[in-house]
Design brief:
Elements: H1 2-14, H2 17-31, H3 35-48, H4 53-65, H5 69-79, H6 88-99, H7 103-114, H8 121-142, E1 150-151, E2 161-167, E3 173-180, E4 183-192, E5 195-196, E6 200-201, E7 212-217, E8 223-229, E9 238-246, E10 249-250, E11 254-255, E12 266-271, E13 277-282, E14 292-297, E15 308-309, E16 320-325, E17 331-336, E18 346-353, E19 356-357, E20 361-362, E21 377-378, E22 384-389, E23 399-404, E24 414-423, E25 433-438, E26 444-448, E27 453-459, E28 463-469, E29 476-481, E30 492-498, E31 506-508, H9 526-538, E32 544-549, H10 556-576, E33 584-588, H11 601-607, E34 609-614
Parallel strand pairs: 24-30, 32-33
Antiparallel strand pairs: 1-23, 2-3, 3-4, 4-5, 4-6, 7-8, 8-9, 9-10, 9-11, 12-13, 13-14, 14-15, 16-17, 17-18, 18-19, 18-20, 21-22, 22-23, 24-27, 25-26, 25-28, 28-29, 31-34, 32-34
Helix pairs in contact: 2-3, 3-4, 4-5, 5-6, 6-7, 6-8, 7-8
């Protein structure tokens, strides 16, 4: 204590009182982030006492706060090794050099800081990160990736700040956060053939006197999750809230509650396109350090599971945040300050596999720069990405830009299926179960409709069997074959009418297959026939006719015989699965009951079919 007092007295005796007065006034300005005013006071102090190193380094600190890194570097380098130059400013010098792409200097000063005694643990870890970043940035500048950002224009961007873009999985609605007069609100715009419609506020039900932002939605834009902070009903500093659109109006927002919201910081949600998972950033205990990315799953009772940390291939000891799960439900984009990058926060990609997430991969320069980069969103086809940037010639502050995502960083090629399910008689919306089966791998994904509709992604080059079923109804069957390139150009949007189980009710088994001129079932048929077995077991009083049909090509008698054998093959499968023979009949109709003219290959394929009818 005596030594510290002596040091303060020596400092006070050396520096003129007037200079010290300006120095301490500058520190007062820092309390209210009045950096320019503080710099002016420090300049006065330095003019009085030119060797005032403490004032110069503090001025560099303020220039860094203003992101004027060139000026900060010049000041700090002039002070380096001078009396009064504190070791922590060596770290600041390394950080500022990286910000202006002086990678060699950044690495040098970071190493110099690490050689100092009594290091601050946080600054030591960040210095090691600066060295990694400097090495990465030097190499990335030599190998830039394609990047031609386009401002989304006056329909979206204003003189205010626009950021956190989000596009619904169907590509029809763009949402984003706007900061205006220190107030954050959520805005939306509809995608049109000519671009985007003028953005509008989500209204007073969602946007309040508090701040709302970092939004995400379900596939059709009727379920909204967003971040709100310091609310009276909140659990912590920031929490995740949700609202539902009913009859065109948003309901009052409610906190998502436990186990997602805690007394820690939870924010930046990203909702999966299949409606089953919510990814978010949190500072909750149990992470790898700083802010981590977590996921919670929604079960069939609409309850959220205990959140899971995404692990060390994504999360680091530094901040990892701003998750965006693509519509393929396998590709995650996020911001991290802990992986090698250009400096600050960079955007990374990780892909979900059967064994976990792949190691984070930097999107590359100049998508990532020396400034903080975050808030990336990607269109469902994987080709177009959206991010916020304050580059020159914008409308002011942060604007939202679009750009073509480099092919290497694109998600798997997909399209999507968007369906509404109704009762065929009453036309009322139904809560129904659906399943999508990859006919090659037999991998099945399942889901439940929400408000009578569902959204499912379809991977290109796959042959899929879709079934939609609900108790008391015949199931719906459709084959979605995307193995042909042209078949994947358009998404599938449909209305499905489920027929109640009653006499003469009929199902076309669109996923039952035979080789040309053969009556043996192909293995790809088994998934669909198992659904039929399930239906018959749940409805033991139901009897069915299995009907085989052909197109009009070839001999009519031969077609009749072939259709009979195919119907019998289906019946044999059902019998082996335990269905009573008295409940089944098999009948071949040949080409006598076409559902389309036999004039094209497409129509002939429709006529070659297997049906079951309730007797």
């Amino acid at each position: 204590m005596v030594l510290l007092l002596m040091a303060d007295l020596a400092f006070a005796q050396q520096v003129p009182q007037k200079a010290m007065a300006h120095y301490f006034q500058a520190k007062e300005y820092a309390q209210s982030t009045q950096w320019e005013e503080g710099i002016a006071e420090l300049d006065k102090a330095i003019k009085i006492y030119p060797d005032y190193t403490e004032a110069k380094t503090l001025m560099a600190d303020y220039f860094m706060a203003l992101k004027k890194y060139d000026t900060a570097v010049a000041i700090l380098e002039a002070c380096y090794r001078k009396e009064g130059f504190q070791p922590r400013y060596i770290f600041f010098l390394a950080e500022a050099c990286l910000r202006i792409n002086q990678t060699d200097k950044a690495a040098y000063y970071a190493q110099q800081y690490l050689s100092q005694p009594l290091l601050n643990p946080g600054a030591m870890r960040k210095s090691e990160q600066i060295i990694r970043n400097a090495q990465f940035a030097a190499e990335a500048k030599k190998n830039p990736v394609p990047f031609q950002p386009k401002n989304l224009g006056a329909a979206i961007n204003t003189e205010h700040w626009e950021y956190f873009p989000y596009m619904t999985p169907d590509g029809k609605l763009l949402a984003f956060t706007r900061l205006q007069n220190n107030q954050e609100d959520i805005y939306v715009s509809t995608k049109t053939e000519k671009g985007f419609s003028p953005a509008v506020s989500l209204g007073n039900i969602i946007n309040t006197a508090d701040n709302e932002g970092a939004e995400t939605m379900n596939a059709d834009g009727t379920l909204l999750f967003f971040t709100a902070c310091n609310r009276m009903d909140g659990y912590g500093s920031c929490d995740i809230y949700f609202s539902q659109k009913l009859k065109g109006n948003w309901t009052a927002a409610m906190g998502i509650g436990k186990p997602i919201n805690t007394s820690a910081w939870e924010a930046q949600p990203s909702f999966s396109s299949d409606g089953r998972a919510l990814y978010f950033a949190s500072s909750r205990p149990g992470g790898l350090g700083g802010k981590d990315i977590w996921v919670s799953y929604l079960d069939e009772q609409l309850k959220w599971s205990e959140p899971q940390n995404l692990g060390p291939n994504i999360n680091t000891a530094n901040d990892d945040q701003c998750p965006f799960i693509h519509a393929d439900n396998q590709t995650l984009y996020f911001t991290s300050a802990g992986w090698p990058g250009m400096g600050g926060g960079d955007i990374y990609i990780s892909r979900k596999t059967d064994t976990g997430w792949t190691k984070a991969e930097n999107l590359g320069y100049p998508i990532n720069t020396e400034t903080d980069d975050n808030g990336l969103a990607v269109s469902y086809d994987g080709k177009m990405a959206f991010l916020a940037s304050n580059r020159e010639n914008g409308f002011g502050g942060l604007d939202i830009y679009s750009f073509e995502l480099p092919e290497k960083m694109q998600p798997k090629r997909i399209t999507y299926l968007k369906a509404t399910v109704r009762d065929a008689v009453t036309k009322q919306l139904l809560q129904a179960n659906y399943s999508m089966t990859d006919l090659e791998t037999k991998k099945e994904s399942k889901g439940v409709t929400q408000n009578g509709s569902f959204f499912a992604t379809l991977e290109v080059n796959k042959n899929n069997a879709l079934q939609i079923q609900q108790e008391g109804y015949l199931f719906y069957s459709r084959n979605i074959n995307l193995t042909a390139e042209a078949s994947a150009t358009q998404p599938f949007e449909m209305e499905v009418l489920l027929q109640p189980i009653s006499a003469n009710g009929k199902i076309t088994l669109n996923n039952v297959f035979f080789d040309f001129d053969k009556s043996e079932l192909k293995p790809e048929s088994f998934a669909e026939l198992d659904k039929l077995v399930e239906l018959l077991l749940k409805n033991p009083a139901v009897k069915m006719e299995i009907a085989g049909h052909t197109d009009s090509k070839g001999d009519k008698k031969y077609n009749l015989l072939l259709s009979q054998k195919r119907a019998e093959s289906v019946m044999e499968y059902l019998l082996k699965k335990g269905i009573d023979k008295l409940r089944l009949t098999a009948k071949g109709y040949g080409d006598t009951q076409p559902v389309a003219p036999n004039d094209t290959e497409e129509n002939q394929a429709k006529n070659r079919r297997t049906e079951v009818k309730v007797l």
